[in-house]
Amino acid sequence: MPKRSDKRESAKAEYIARKAKGEKVNLRELAEQQGVSYQSVRNWKAADKWDEQIPKRKRGGQPGNKNSKGKKNAKGHHDGAPAGNKNAEKDGAYSAVFFDMLSDSEKELAAITPTGGKDALINELQILKVREHRILEKLALYENAEEDTLYLNSLMDMRVPAGKGKAKQDGAVQTMGMYSKDSAFARSLKLQEALYKVQGRIATIVNSLRALEEADRRHELDKRRLEILEMKATGAIEIAEPDGGEEVDIDAKELGVTADETLYE
């Protein structure tokens, strides 16, 4: 059997060594390095089955890899991202909040935010009323607008680089612009939908506040009744009874409550 050429063996060894490291190998470049034709390298690769002789790579870091030097992984080998890290944050809508990292204005806002049930409802109601007012103002603006008035909704501006070398400028030449506009009527429809949602929430909060107020009045009424009954039981006051021996119901005036509050009875 004729001896294989040194270039064939050298090309094979270079290919397998680079592939074992996870590198990409360009056969044309490899052929130029060995001083042979591209077709020869292709034929050698297929005939000698180079890819089948590449050692299987182990999972994780390869021998000699120092990417994690001095660090610990999730099982105790490295601490990971520090507390409060926001490397993956996009717009902050779902960002975790760390109170020790708040700005002074954010801390002030958190401090004045009501935490009681009733106060929180009142605060939300006030905000919703402001939002309702702004929506109504916008609706009035669109209703008074001319019929053919259009409002910019979205804009897409496509550009390509211009110039060469040091004079190259990204996005210097505009190739196409796409614009989307809304009519006053279309915008009014969107605002009407937003207005219905705001007003629906306002109605819900008002009903909740009314229920809280009624609960407070009932609690006060029960408290005063207990006070009267306690004074009666201790003899502090005397309440006359009718001839039948039945006790007379305590009058609302004696309790110091209004006529509306007696409806609770």
Can you tell me about this structure?
The protein has 265 residues and is mostly helical. Among the domains are: 48 residues; 91 residues, Helix Hairpins (Orthogonal Bundle). The protein is 47% helix and 11% strand. Strands 1-2 form a two-stranded antiparallel sheet. Strand 1 and strand 2 form a beta hairpin. The termini are far apart. The C terminus is likely disordered.
Intertermini distance = 115 Å
Query: What share of residues are in beta strands?
Result: 5-15%
CATH architecture of the domain at 117-207: Orthogonal Bundle
Strand order of the largest sheet: 1-2
Helix-strand makeup class: mainly alpha
What is the number of helical segments per DSSP (H or I, 4+ residues)? 7
Query: In which range does the helix fraction lie?
Result: 40-55%
Task: Quickly describe the structure.
The protein has 265 residues and is mainly alpha-helical. The chain has helices spanning 6-20, 27-34, 38-48, 104-112, 117-143, 184-233, 252-255; strands at 150-162, 169-183.
